[in-house]
Amino acid sequence: MYGAPSRRAALTLALGAAFALPACSNDVAPSHGGRAAITIVAPADSVFEGDVIRLTAKVFDDAGSEIPGAPVSWSAGDTTLGRLTSADSLTLLRPGTVRITARSGASTTTYDLTIGRLVATKVELTPPVLSLGRGDRVQVVARLVGQGNRTIVGRQIAFSSADSAVAVIGSPDNTVGGPGFLIAVGPGSTTIAASADGVTGTAHVGVVVADTNFVLTHFNGVPLPALVAADTVTFNGVKEFAEVYADSGAFVLSGLAQERYSLNVHFSQYRVVRNGDSVQRELRLSVLGEIDRGVVTAGPAGNLSMLSELIGPHLEHSATSQSDGYLVHFREPGDDFIIDLRFKRVAP
User: Fold this and answer.
1) Are strands 158-161 and 96-104 parallel, antiparallel or unpaired?
2) Where are the domains of the chain?
3) 23: phi then psi, degrees, rounded to nearest 5
4) pLDDT (tens digit, 9 = 90+) per residue, 153-162?
5) CATH architecture for the domain at 35-116
6) Which of 127, 122, 126 is nearest to 145 (CA)?
7) Do residues 179 and 159 make contact, with C-beta atoms less than 8 angstroms apart?
8) Model confidence at 294, in pLDDT bands (50, 70, 90)?
9) Fold match flag (35-116 vs 122-208)
10) If you classify domain 122-208 with CATH, what class do you get?
11) Rounded to two decimals, what is the model's pTM?
12) Confidence (pLDDT) at 34
Protein backbone atom coordinates (compact mmCIF):
# COMPACT_ATOMS: atom_id res chain seq x y z
CA MET A 1 0.00 0.00 0.00
CA TYR A 2 2.85 2.36 0.72
CA GLY A 3 5.10 1.15 -2.09
CA ALA A 4 5.95 2.81 -5.40
CA PRO A 5 3.08 4.72 -7.03
CA SER A 6 1.22 3.10 -9.85
CA ARG A 7 1.84 4.22 -13.46
CA ARG A 8 -1.61 5.87 -13.60
CA ALA A 9 -0.88 7.89 -10.44
CA ALA A 10 2.52 9.02 -11.75
CA LEU A 11 0.93 10.20 -15.02
CA THR A 12 -1.76 12.12 -13.15
CA LEU A 13 0.83 13.93 -11.05
CA ALA A 14 2.90 14.83 -14.15
CA LEU A 15 -0.11 16.28 -16.00
CA GLY A 16 -1.12 18.31 -12.94
CA ALA A 17 2.33 19.83 -12.68
CA ALA A 18 2.35 20.68 -16.39
CA PHE A 19 -0.94 22.60 -16.17
CA ALA A 20 0.09 24.28 -12.94
CA LEU A 21 3.28 25.90 -14.36
CA PRO A 22 1.58 28.48 -16.67
CA ALA A 23 -0.80 29.47 -13.90
CA CYS A 24 2.11 30.21 -11.55
CA SER A 25 4.03 32.27 -14.21
CA ASN A 26 1.02 34.59 -14.75
CA ASP A 27 1.32 35.76 -11.15
CA VAL A 28 4.89 37.13 -11.69
CA ALA A 29 5.41 40.63 -13.36
CA PRO A 30 7.56 40.56 -16.50
CA SER A 31 11.08 41.92 -16.04
CA HIS A 32 13.24 43.86 -18.57
CA GLY A 33 16.75 42.86 -19.35
CA GLY A 34 19.66 45.29 -19.40
CA ARG A 35 19.46 48.63 -21.24
CA ALA A 36 20.89 47.71 -24.60
CA ALA A 37 20.17 50.85 -26.65
CA ILE A 38 19.13 54.51 -26.39
CA THR A 39 17.83 56.69 -29.20
CA ILE A 40 17.42 60.51 -29.24
CA VAL A 41 14.13 61.71 -30.71
CA ALA A 42 14.88 64.50 -33.21
CA PRO A 43 12.81 67.75 -33.01
CA ALA A 44 9.79 67.67 -35.27
CA ASP A 45 10.56 71.10 -36.80
CA SER A 46 13.59 73.26 -37.53
CA VAL A 47 15.01 75.04 -34.50
CA PHE A 48 16.58 78.50 -34.27
CA GLU A 49 18.67 80.65 -31.98
CA GLY A 50 16.65 81.69 -28.95
CA ASP A 51 14.45 78.58 -28.96
CA VAL A 52 14.05 76.46 -25.84
CA ILE A 53 13.47 72.80 -26.67
CA ARG A 54 12.62 69.72 -24.63
CA LEU A 55 15.03 66.82 -25.09
CA THR A 56 13.47 63.37 -25.56
CA ALA A 57 15.01 59.90 -25.82
CA LYS A 58 13.80 56.30 -25.94
CA VAL A 59 15.56 53.52 -24.02
CA PHE A 60 15.28 49.86 -25.11
CA ASP A 61 16.13 46.58 -23.37
CA ASP A 62 17.99 43.56 -24.75
CA ALA A 63 14.84 42.27 -26.38
CA GLY A 64 14.25 45.56 -28.22
CA SER A 65 11.31 46.63 -26.06
CA GLU A 66 11.09 50.26 -24.92
CA ILE A 67 11.59 50.83 -21.19
CA PRO A 68 9.03 53.45 -20.15
CA GLY A 69 10.27 56.08 -17.67
CA ALA A 70 13.91 55.05 -17.89
CA PRO A 71 16.07 57.87 -16.50
CA VAL A 72 18.13 59.81 -19.06
CA SER A 73 20.88 62.36 -18.43
CA TRP A 74 21.86 64.98 -21.00
CA SER A 75 24.87 67.09 -21.93
CA ALA A 76 25.74 69.57 -24.69
CA GLY A 77 29.15 69.52 -26.34
CA ASP A 78 29.46 73.30 -26.94
CA THR A 79 27.79 75.32 -24.22
CA THR A 80 28.19 78.53 -26.24
CA LEU A 81 25.71 77.05 -28.73
CA GLY A 82 23.28 75.35 -26.35
CA ARG A 83 22.89 75.36 -22.58
CA LEU A 84 20.89 72.98 -20.40
CA THR A 85 18.47 75.05 -18.35
CA SER A 86 16.80 72.08 -16.65
CA ALA A 87 17.20 68.30 -16.60
CA ASP A 88 15.77 67.93 -20.14
CA SER A 89 15.48 71.52 -21.43
CA LEU A 90 18.02 73.04 -23.85
CA THR A 91 18.27 76.77 -24.67
CA LEU A 92 19.71 77.44 -28.11
CA LEU A 93 22.06 80.40 -27.92
CA ARG A 94 23.45 81.00 -31.41
CA PRO A 95 23.53 79.44 -34.88
CA GLY A 96 25.69 76.36 -35.39
CA THR A 97 25.68 72.61 -34.80
CA VAL A 98 25.71 71.39 -31.21
CA ARG A 99 26.32 67.74 -30.30
CA ILE A 100 23.86 66.46 -27.71
CA THR A 101 24.66 63.35 -25.65
CA ALA A 102 22.06 61.18 -23.91
CA ARG A 103 22.98 58.55 -21.28
CA SER A 104 20.92 55.90 -19.56
CA GLY A 105 22.77 53.32 -17.52
CA ALA A 106 25.67 52.07 -19.63
CA SER A 107 24.03 53.14 -22.89
CA THR A 108 25.09 56.37 -24.64
CA THR A 109 24.17 58.05 -27.90
CA THR A 110 24.69 61.42 -29.58
CA TYR A 111 22.78 63.67 -31.96
CA ASP A 112 24.06 66.66 -33.93
CA LEU A 113 21.43 69.41 -33.69
CA THR A 114 21.57 72.18 -36.29
CA ILE A 115 20.59 75.61 -34.91
CA GLY A 116 19.39 78.00 -37.59
CA ARG A 117 20.01 81.76 -37.71
CA LEU A 118 16.93 83.95 -37.45
CA VAL A 119 16.50 86.25 -40.43
CA ALA A 120 14.61 89.49 -39.82
CA THR A 121 11.31 89.70 -41.67
CA LYS A 122 9.78 92.80 -40.06
CA VAL A 123 10.08 95.35 -37.25
CA GLU A 124 7.06 96.07 -35.04
CA LEU A 125 6.89 99.34 -33.09
CA THR A 126 4.87 99.76 -29.90
CA PRO A 127 2.92 101.97 -29.73
CA PRO A 128 2.34 102.24 -33.49
CA VAL A 129 0.63 105.64 -33.13
CA LEU A 130 1.51 108.33 -30.58
CA SER A 131 -0.59 111.40 -29.78
CA LEU A 132 1.54 113.60 -27.56
CA GLY A 133 1.76 117.05 -26.05
CA ARG A 134 4.87 119.16 -26.40
CA GLY A 135 7.33 118.05 -23.72
CA ASP A 136 6.05 114.46 -23.44
CA ARG A 137 8.69 111.76 -23.17
CA VAL A 138 7.82 108.15 -23.96
CA GLN A 139 9.67 104.89 -24.58
CA VAL A 140 9.08 103.31 -27.98
CA VAL A 141 9.73 99.55 -28.11
CA ALA A 142 10.89 97.88 -31.32
CA ARG A 143 10.43 94.13 -31.82
CA LEU A 144 12.55 92.48 -34.50
CA VAL A 145 10.65 89.48 -35.91
CA GLY A 146 12.09 86.37 -37.59
CA GLN A 147 10.91 82.96 -38.81
CA GLY A 148 7.77 81.61 -37.18
CA ASN A 149 7.04 85.03 -35.60
CA ARG A 150 10.02 84.54 -33.30
CA THR A 151 11.46 87.57 -31.51
CA ILE A 152 15.08 88.25 -32.45
CA VAL A 153 17.21 89.58 -29.61
CA GLY A 154 20.73 90.95 -29.48
CA ARG A 155 20.64 92.82 -32.81
CA GLN A 156 21.29 96.56 -32.83
CA ILE A 157 18.24 98.62 -33.79
CA ALA A 158 18.69 102.15 -35.17
CA PHE A 159 15.90 104.68 -34.50
CA SER A 160 15.33 107.89 -36.44
CA SER A 161 12.82 110.72 -36.74
CA ALA A 162 11.76 112.22 -40.06
CA ASP A 163 11.37 115.66 -38.43
CA SER A 164 13.47 116.48 -35.36
CA ALA A 165 11.53 119.74 -34.90
CA VAL A 166 8.49 117.60 -33.99
CA ALA A 167 10.12 114.65 -32.19
CA VAL A 168 13.58 113.34 -31.47
CA ILE A 169 14.35 109.74 -30.56
CA GLY A 170 17.34 108.04 -28.98
CA SER A 171 19.58 105.82 -31.09
CA PRO A 172 23.25 104.77 -31.12
CA ASP A 173 24.01 108.02 -32.97
CA ASN A 174 21.70 110.18 -30.83
CA THR A 175 21.91 109.49 -27.11
CA VAL A 176 18.64 111.18 -26.12
CA GLY A 177 17.58 109.07 -23.13
CA GLY A 178 18.75 105.80 -24.70
CA PRO A 179 17.54 103.86 -27.78
CA GLY A 180 13.83 104.34 -28.47
CA PHE A 181 13.37 107.14 -25.93
CA LEU A 182 11.25 109.78 -27.69
CA ILE A 183 10.80 113.45 -26.79
CA ALA A 184 7.95 115.49 -28.26
CA VAL A 185 9.63 118.76 -29.25
CA GLY A 186 7.08 120.86 -31.09
CA PRO A 187 3.68 120.83 -32.80
CA GLY A 188 3.20 118.85 -35.99
CA SER A 189 3.39 115.26 -37.18
CA THR A 190 6.25 113.02 -38.18
CA THR A 191 7.28 109.42 -38.70
CA ILE A 192 9.75 107.56 -36.56
CA ALA A 193 11.54 104.52 -37.94
CA ALA A 194 13.37 101.55 -36.45
CA SER A 195 15.74 99.58 -38.69
CA ALA A 196 17.78 96.39 -38.26
CA ASP A 197 19.24 93.86 -40.69
CA GLY A 198 17.86 95.78 -43.67
CA VAL A 199 14.27 95.75 -42.38
CA THR A 200 12.42 98.88 -41.21
CA GLY A 201 9.26 99.49 -39.19
CA THR A 202 7.54 102.85 -38.69
CA ALA A 203 5.17 104.61 -36.30
CA HIS A 204 3.27 107.88 -36.60
CA VAL A 205 3.77 110.70 -34.08
CA GLY A 206 1.44 113.67 -33.67
CA VAL A 207 2.40 116.50 -31.29
CA VAL A 208 0.21 119.38 -30.12
CA VAL A 209 0.94 122.36 -27.89
CA ALA A 210 -0.56 121.49 -24.52
CA ASP A 211 1.19 124.10 -22.37
CA THR A 212 -0.20 126.04 -19.45
CA ASN A 213 1.95 129.12 -18.81
CA PHE A 214 2.47 131.03 -15.56
CA VAL A 215 4.54 134.14 -14.80
CA LEU A 216 6.41 134.89 -11.59
CA THR A 217 4.76 137.62 -9.48
CA HIS A 218 6.32 137.18 -5.99
CA PHE A 219 9.70 135.97 -4.72
CA ASN A 220 9.54 134.78 -1.07
CA GLY A 221 6.37 136.80 -0.61
CA VAL A 222 7.78 140.04 -2.07
CA PRO A 223 6.27 141.43 -5.31
CA LEU A 224 8.61 141.68 -8.30
CA PRO A 225 11.11 143.17 -8.70
CA ALA A 226 12.16 141.69 -5.36
CA LEU A 227 15.48 142.58 -3.71
CA VAL A 228 17.16 139.27 -2.82
CA ALA A 229 20.73 140.38 -1.96
CA ALA A 230 22.76 143.55 -1.33
CA ASP A 231 26.48 143.71 -0.58
CA THR A 232 29.83 145.16 -1.54
CA VAL A 233 31.45 143.37 -4.48
CA THR A 234 34.59 143.81 -6.55
CA PHE A 235 34.03 144.56 -10.21
CA ASN A 236 37.08 144.89 -12.50
CA GLY A 237 39.26 145.29 -9.40
CA VAL A 238 37.12 148.11 -7.98
CA LYS A 239 34.88 147.72 -4.94
CA GLU A 240 31.31 148.84 -5.39
CA PHE A 241 27.94 148.30 -3.76
CA ALA A 242 25.62 145.96 -5.63
CA GLU A 243 21.99 144.84 -5.39
CA VAL A 244 20.46 141.71 -6.90
CA TYR A 245 16.79 141.56 -7.85
CA ALA A 246 14.52 138.75 -8.94
CA ASP A 247 12.72 140.49 -11.76
CA SER A 248 10.93 137.81 -13.80
CA GLY A 249 10.32 134.10 -14.13
CA ALA A 250 8.23 131.46 -15.87
CA PHE A 251 6.55 128.22 -14.88
CA VAL A 252 5.19 125.93 -17.62
CA LEU A 253 3.09 122.77 -17.27
CA SER A 254 3.00 120.67 -20.44
CA GLY A 255 2.42 117.23 -21.90
CA LEU A 256 -0.46 114.83 -22.44
CA ALA A 257 0.98 111.36 -21.85
CA GLN A 258 2.94 112.55 -18.78
CA GLU A 259 2.59 116.03 -17.30
CA ARG A 260 5.88 117.84 -16.98
CA TYR A 261 7.16 121.16 -15.70
CA SER A 262 9.84 123.67 -16.55
CA LEU A 263 10.75 126.59 -14.30
CA ASN A 264 13.12 129.54 -14.36
CA VAL A 265 13.79 132.70 -12.36
CA HIS A 266 15.64 135.66 -13.85
CA PHE A 267 17.98 137.80 -11.72
CA SER A 268 19.62 141.16 -12.40
CA GLN A 269 22.59 142.68 -10.59
CA TYR A 270 22.97 146.50 -10.39
CA ARG A 271 25.76 148.82 -9.33
CA VAL A 272 24.23 151.25 -6.84
CA VAL A 273 25.50 154.82 -6.61
CA ARG A 274 24.11 157.24 -4.00
CA ASN A 275 24.50 161.01 -4.28
CA GLY A 276 22.66 162.51 -1.32
CA ASP A 277 19.05 161.60 -1.75
CA SER A 278 19.61 160.47 -5.32
CA VAL A 279 20.14 156.77 -6.10
CA GLN A 280 21.31 155.51 -9.46
CA ARG A 281 21.43 151.86 -10.53
CA GLU A 282 23.58 150.61 -13.39
CA LEU A 283 22.90 147.11 -14.78
CA ARG A 284 25.96 144.92 -14.44
CA LEU A 285 24.71 141.36 -14.92
CA SER A 286 21.55 139.55 -16.04
CA VAL A 287 21.19 135.79 -15.57
CA LEU A 288 18.75 132.91 -15.22
CA GLY A 289 19.59 131.98 -11.65
CA GLU A 290 17.10 129.15 -11.10
CA ILE A 291 16.42 126.64 -13.87
CA ASP A 292 14.80 123.24 -13.54
CA ARG A 293 12.55 120.75 -15.31
CA GLY A 294 11.04 117.36 -14.55
CA VAL A 295 7.95 115.23 -14.03
CA VAL A 296 4.73 116.30 -12.30
CA THR A 297 2.43 114.20 -10.13
CA ALA A 298 -0.90 115.80 -9.20
CA GLY A 299 -2.19 115.27 -5.66
CA PRO A 300 -5.30 116.21 -3.66
CA ALA A 301 -6.84 119.65 -4.30
CA GLY A 302 -4.62 120.12 -7.36
CA ASN A 303 -1.36 120.32 -5.40
CA LEU A 304 1.72 119.15 -7.29
CA SER A 305 4.79 117.07 -6.60
CA MET A 306 7.61 117.89 -9.03
CA LEU A 307 10.53 115.50 -9.40
CA SER A 308 13.56 117.12 -11.00
CA GLU A 309 15.33 115.55 -13.97
CA LEU A 310 17.91 118.32 -14.14
CA ILE A 311 18.99 118.68 -10.51
CA GLY A 312 19.79 115.52 -8.59
CA PRO A 313 19.88 113.11 -7.13
CA HIS A 314 16.12 112.89 -6.39
CA LEU A 315 15.39 116.57 -5.81
CA GLU A 316 11.67 117.14 -5.37
CA HIS A 317 9.74 120.41 -5.24
CA SER A 318 6.08 120.94 -4.38
CA ALA A 319 3.42 123.42 -5.47
CA THR A 320 0.25 124.55 -3.69
CA SER A 321 -2.72 125.36 -5.88
CA GLN A 322 -3.89 128.99 -5.75
CA SER A 323 -6.99 130.59 -7.22
CA ASP A 324 -5.06 131.95 -10.21
CA GLY A 325 -1.88 129.88 -10.24
CA TYR A 326 0.60 128.09 -7.99
CA LEU A 327 2.85 128.78 -5.03
CA VAL A 328 5.93 126.71 -5.82
CA HIS A 329 8.10 125.63 -2.89
CA PHE A 330 11.39 125.38 -4.75
CA ARG A 331 13.92 123.23 -2.93
CA GLU A 332 17.53 124.22 -3.39
CA PRO A 333 19.88 121.23 -3.79
CA GLY A 334 22.20 120.27 -0.97
CA ASP A 335 20.91 122.32 1.95
CA ASP A 336 17.10 121.86 1.77
CA PHE A 337 16.69 125.63 1.54
CA ILE A 338 13.22 126.56 0.27
CA ILE A 339 12.38 129.48 -2.03
CA ASP A 340 8.70 130.36 -2.33
CA LEU A 341 7.82 131.39 -5.88
CA ARG A 342 4.33 132.70 -6.62
CA PHE A 343 3.25 132.18 -10.22
CA LYS A 344 0.12 133.54 -11.86
CA ARG A 345 -1.53 131.89 -14.85
CA VAL A 346 -1.23 133.64 -18.19
CA ALA A 347 -4.54 134.00 -19.99
CA PRO A 348 -4.62 131.94 -23.23
Assistant:
1) unpaired
2) 35-116, 122-208, 212-345
3) -60, -40
4) 989 999 999 9
5) Sandwich (2.60)
6) 122
7) yes
8) very high
9) yes
10) mainly beta
11) 0.69
12) 62
